[in-house]
Q: What sequence folds into this?
């Protein structure tokens, strides 16, 4: 038996046969447990095809800490909430999934997949474009302006038969559209302003708008609205729901319980 969780509902113990009878479109999620040193996964077998899969275990912090995670995200507009106490390794897990250097040493049987393709079939750079990580307070680490950052992204995202100029134009258009939806005043002017001259809320929304404008397949977000007031959060959340419904899988770290309940369709506990 496992605990079945739906949005706004409490968990209860059910048998496997009863669980199968309960599977309806309203069923939101299965509680997954992702613990240091071991992973316990129980997941409903529904009709949605898997978009993204993670099954990793290994060590980090020079071998002093262990971590394992096993979950699958279906291609049905999932927003997975990654929960856990501060310092337990949520950011490390997100960065590991994005193939960023965290000092994590995976075991030989660790695997990740995206749209049916094993991670090993992707060049690391292409994987990071599709599985995009936005760190907490990421804008504070950037130099220059949002405009120069967009230019850098356009340089790395343009492909054969597509000019950098056209990619930059598309990225800028999508970014400013999000900024307007989120009530960021004078979007084009703000893109030309140095990051350090933007407020915390402005820089957070602009960086998220840029990340979303690249249209990744999976978006890994670490406290993306921590500097925003409620109205700004709600505006951003509407956009996150929209891109999830259009096929982008989102894994979100937030300590805002109300935001978890508003956005979450799957819960991962670390």
A:
């Amino acid at each position: 038996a496992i605990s079945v969780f739906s949005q706004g509902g409490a968990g209860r113990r059910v048998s496997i046969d009863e669980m199968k009878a309960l599977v309806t479109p309203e069923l939101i999620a299965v509680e997954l447990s992702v613990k240091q040193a071991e992973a316990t996964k129980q997941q409903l077998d529904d009709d949605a095809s898997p978009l993204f899969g993670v099954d990793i275990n290994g060590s980090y912090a020079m071998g002093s800490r262990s971590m394992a995670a096993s979950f699958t995200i279906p291609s049905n507009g999932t927003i997975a909430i990654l929960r856990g106490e501060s310092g337990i390794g949520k950011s490390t897990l997100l960065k590991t999934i994005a193939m960023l250097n965290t000092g994590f040493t995976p075991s030989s049987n660790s695997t990740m997949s995206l749209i049916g393709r094993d991670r090993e079939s992707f060049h690391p750079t292409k994987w990071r474009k599709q599985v995009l990580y936005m760190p907490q307070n990421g804008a504070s680490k950037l130099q220059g302006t949002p405009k120069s950052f967009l230019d850098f992204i356009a340089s790395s995202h343009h492909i054969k038969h597509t000019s950098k100029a056209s990619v930059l134009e598309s990225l800028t258009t999508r970014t400013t559209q999000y900024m307007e939806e989120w009530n960021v005043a004078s979007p084009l002017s703000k893109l030309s302003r140095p990051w350090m001259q933007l407020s915390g809320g402005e820089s957070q929304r602009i960086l998220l708008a840029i990340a979303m404008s690249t249209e990744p397949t999976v978006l890994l977000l670490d406290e993306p609205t921590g500097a925003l007031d409620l109205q700004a959060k709600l505006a951003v959340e509407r956009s996150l729901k929209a891109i999830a419904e259009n096929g982008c899988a989102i894994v979100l770290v937030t300590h805002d319980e109300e935001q978890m309940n508003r956005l979450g369709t799957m819960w991962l506990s670390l």
Observations:
- Confidence is low (pLDDT under 50) at residues 1-47.
- DSSP finds nine helices and 15 strands in the chain.
- The two ends are 20 Å apart (CA to CA).
